[in-house]
């Protein structure tokens, strides 16, 4: 089914056959498609065309997809779906670390890719202000602004990847409540997420690492073994070992 409002997708792929196939099939689904075959062209079009989602191949001439992802994530929160070659686990991990929202491994079926595109666009539409969550929460030197998608500890702004921000926002909306990995995946990645559930553990670890430089923060992300995670709000905690 075509989207009710046309969304613009930037397809970045240097293999002509794959790029043209994606353009054709996405257009049939009602999406507006912009194409790029090199890293520099991807950056230029992402800035000028302001796509709603970017399909980004890892192996690109001129500038790698991973470098394109790193640069774009510093400039915007546009969902990025990485296209990776089979067996390149390092590319997947690095892509997520740089801020990619999801990945699909070549060769892939268009139905799988379409499901991921649909899920990412839906979450992007809903992420500006999660239901039941205040736009701004501020306490004990900590501040999260969901509309601006910023996080500050004291006077320092933390640079969080999109899924790190969404995960932290979810945990803060549910203080003291244990959230299972399945519940977290459904809320942050969507019900059609086909990746490894351990991605939750990886993102929690990255969040903890972001807070490690600070001696005092007003909450702790607690592991509930065999179940999931819980955020405990407290006056201050000592992050030293």
Give the structure's gist in a few sentences.
It is built from 8 helices and 12 strands.
Q: Could you describe the largest sheet, including whether it forms a barrel?
A: 5 strands, parallel
The geometry reads as globular
The radius of gyration is 18 Å
CATH topology title of the largest domain:
Rossmann fold
Assembly state of the chains shown:
single chain
Q: What is the strand content? A: 25-35%
Query: What structural category do the secondary elements indicate?
Result: alpha/beta
Number of helices: 8
Could you list the spans in which at least 5 consecutive residues all have pLDDT below 50? 236-241
**CATH classification class of the largest domain:** Alpha Beta
Q: Averaged pLDDT, please?
A: 84
What's the β-strand tally?
A: 12
Tally of discrete structural domains: 2
What is the helix/strand order?
EHEHEHEHEHEEEEHEHHEE
Do you know the CATH architecture of the largest domain?
A: 3-Layer(aba) Sandwich
* Portion of residues within helices: 25-40%
At the fourth level of CATH, the homologous superfamily of the largest domain is: Response regulator
Ends distance: 53 Å
């Amino acid at each position: 089914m075509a989207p009710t409002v046309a969304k613009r997708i930037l397809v970045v792929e240097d293999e002509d056959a794959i790029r043209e196939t994606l353009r054709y099939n996405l257009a049939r689904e009602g999406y507006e498609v912009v194409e790029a075959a090199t890293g520099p062209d991807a950056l230029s079009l992402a800035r000028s065309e302001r796509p709603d989602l970017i399909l980004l191949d890892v192996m690109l001439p001129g500038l790698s997809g991973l470098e394109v992802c790193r640069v774009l994530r510093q400039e915007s929160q546009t969902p990025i779906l990485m296209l990776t070659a089979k067996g390149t686990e390092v590319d997947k991990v690095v892509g997520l670390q740089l801020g990619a929202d999801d990945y699909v491994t070549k060769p892939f079926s268009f139905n799988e890719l379409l499901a991921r595109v649909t899920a990412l666009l839906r979450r992007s539409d809903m992420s500006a202000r999660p239901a039941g969550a205040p736009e701004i929460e501020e306490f004990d030197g900590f501040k999260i602004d969901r509309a601006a998608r910023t996080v500050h500890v004291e006077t320092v702004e933390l640079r969080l990847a999109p899924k790190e921000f969404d995960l932290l926002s979810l945990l803060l909306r549910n203080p003291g409540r244990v959230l299972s990995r399945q519940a977290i995946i459904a809320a942050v990645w969507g019900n059609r997420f086909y990746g490894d559930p351990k991605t939750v553990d990886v993102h929690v670890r990255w969040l903890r690492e972001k807070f490690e430089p600070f001696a005092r923060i007003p909450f702790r992300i607690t592991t509930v073994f065999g179940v999931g995670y819980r955020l405990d709000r407290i006056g201050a905690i000592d992050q030293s070992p």
